[in-house]
Amino acid sequence: MDRLSTRFKGTKTYLTNAALEASVNCALVLEKPLLVRGEPGTGKTLLAEAIAEALDMELITWHIKSTSRAQDGLYVYDTVQRLYDSRFGEGNVHDIRNYIRLGPLGGAFTADKRKVLLIDEIDKADIEFPNDLLHELDRMQFKIIETNEEIKAKYRPVVIITSNAEKELGDAFLRRCVFHFIDFPDRELMERIVKVHHPDIDERLVNQAIETFYQIRAMQRMRKPPSTSELVDWIAVLKSAGVTNTQLDQNLPFLGTLLKKEQDLVTYADQLAGGRRWRS
Amino acid sequence: MFIPFIYELRERKVPVGTHEALSLARAMSYGLHRNSLDGFYYVARALIVHDERHLDAFDEAFLHHFKGIEIKSLELKDELLRWLQEAEKEFGDLTPEERELFEQFELDELRRLFEETMQEQTERHDGGDRWIGTRGRSAYGHGGVKRPGIRVGGPGKHRSAIQVADARQYRPYRSDLTIDVHQMGMALRRLRAFSREGTEEELDLDATINETAKNAGELEIVTRPPKRPNLRVILLMDVGGSMDPYAYLVSRLFTAAKRANHFRELRCYYFHNCTYGRVYGTERFDRPVYINDLLRECSRYYKLIMVGDALMAPYELLSQGGSITYNETNRVPGIGWLIILREHFLRSVWLNPEPQAYWGETTIGHIRNVFDMFPLTLDGLTDAMVCLSKGREKR
Description:
The complex is a heterodimer of chains A (280) and B (395). Chain A is an alpha/beta fold. Helix content of chain A is 42%, strand content 14%. In chain A, the strands form three sheets. In chain A, strands 2-5-8-1-9 form a five-stranded parallel beta sheet, with helices on both faces. A two-stranded antiparallel sheet of chain A has the order 3-4. In chain A, strands 6-7 form a two-stranded antiparallel ribbon. In chain A, helix 10 (187-197) packs across helix 11 and helix 10 (187-197) crosses helix 12 (228-241). Chain A is elongated. The N and C termini of chain A lie far apart (64 Å). In chain B, 43% of the residues lie in helices and 13% in strands. Chain B has helices at 2-11, 18-29, 37-48, 55-67, 76-89, 96-120, 161-167, 181-188, 205-214, 247-259, 291-297, 314-318, 334-344, 362-370, 378-390; strands spanning 130-132, 150-152, 194-196, 202-203, 223-224, 227-229, 232-238, 265-271, 278-280, 288-290, 303-307, 347-352, 373-375. In chain B, helix 14 (362-370) links the parallel strand 12 and strand 13. Classes of the chains: A alpha/beta (280), B alpha/beta (395).
């Protein structure tokens, strides 16, 4: 029963907290998919990589697009190739199995080791997409209709699903998942995160930059408040440009790395001016 | 121990059932909670809550159950509004003129103050020394009625689970509070319709294979028109006057609607308090458009979304010539125009930013008889979109 003893505690570069560890461990032990949500830029996708690294498993990533279908994750029956081959007499057309290609989910099921499967941005797909995967994720098995072959997971993969909440996920689907909402890091954790990314950086600059960053985030009516990844980028730019002063004022260097919407830049200027001019 | 907790959660509208309870029991039998309350908090949260919108209610239930303290903060908003309402009742014996004055200015002013305070207040506060609201002095100036203030304080440091729960940091994610552009956009996406129209420029693979097979293996290409969004929406917004406190909220809805790329057409118009013969293309009531013209241009399949607090003087809604705009003399009363709009369109809704507790009184009651009304919250917006796409439920 090694699944009971494996525990996730984060990695050198991925810092966690008690809540996240509890969620990941629940998912590991109960063998349920872990659904991760949170603001963009809080490291949802990185979490899967960290879990794979910490548990020493291979990571299989399935990036979901608006055109993705649940079926694609299981297997694809390449009819066009078969049709083409039959016309020109190539390949072994009589064996359908030659034209069945396993998708990421199918690949994880048939693997000889336990894998980490990341289903990235599940909300990008059609509304029905998660429901189509219900049974497969629950039982960890599916049937290839064309060959009447049953594919059953030898080792149940650790499934990590990320979502930006662009679409609602069905209740039935949610019930089968362990849910974790990645909080926005508090100052203390943020300092540690920045130090992980920039180990050799001036302490004073970091403190000042973080201070400014939280001040900007605290501003009201920002449409897209800057997030962790933006702060890390910003500090990288500051470092390489040799900037030492990041006081909150009108000429904050490289503001564009933090605020990416025109209205937010206006709001920023407004609030610095002590405004309340948004009403106009 | 935790079964009553499950019911506590259900009472607070966190959808939790046997499935979650069993998972939690299993997790505990594996010792995932490490025999501590903190551990239990995190494990329970991971397994029971499936949506960040319920995190705050979970925190609250946890606090209530495990700390045994009375939770008042959820009622904060209701309480405040009730208090405003009661203050209003105390002025029951004013002259009609005074009353109207009071309604037009003071209540709006108070609401605006209140809304601003609520927007700034993102956390639950226990104890403290700052008094917000009206600071206990009368804002009405009549009769010198004293009203209580509300005490709030600063947030605490989070250490234990109780403290984490007590910090109530998920309050902004509650779905029954107001919402941001992104969430509105998501709710608007519930409203969608597609159709295949136009030139045939997409390869229909299945049909091609079928036809090719029928054609003894000679390729037979079949094409079809691509799927395109086929949804036309009219957004009619009340601006000015009593809608001012909600200007920011409505502007977010406007942004979300403008940004939604699944509408084939979006028409936005403005009106003040009620629609009469025309609506306007701008917030400053320029570019008038006659409703009759609008109805001629737009088929009944357009979806009509009305946004407004539906609060006005009764004569504005019910009398001829009641229009608040001085150069308009309407022969059909406002409610008549509303009925004309409702009758023309197959599907229509009214979104109201006013708290639902106030519906039923005043002119809102009349307008609710005409339109299906939904609160302008995430839940309300979602319900409204369902109503627009699937038709109204039986009332």
